[in-house]
Amino acid sequence: MTDDNEKRLAGLVENLPEGVDCALIFSPENRFYFTGFNASDGVLIAGANGCVFLTDSRYTEAAQRCVTACDVRLLKKLSQELPGELKAFGYGCAAIEAQHTSISELKKIKEILPGFRFETEALDGIINDLRTVKSDGEKELIVLAQRCAERAFEHILGFIKPGVTEREIALELDYHMLKDGAQGISFETIAVSGKNSSMPHGVPSDKRIENGDFVTMDFGAVIGGYHSDMTRTVAVGAVSDEQRHVYDTVLEAQLAAISAVRDGVSCVDADAAARDVIKSAGFGEFFGHGTGHGVGIEIHEQPRVSYTSDEILHCGNVVTVEPGIYLPGRFGVRIEDMVSVTADGCENLTLAPKQLIVL
Question: Which contiguous run of DSSP H or E holds residue 248?
Answer without folding.
Answer: helix 241-260
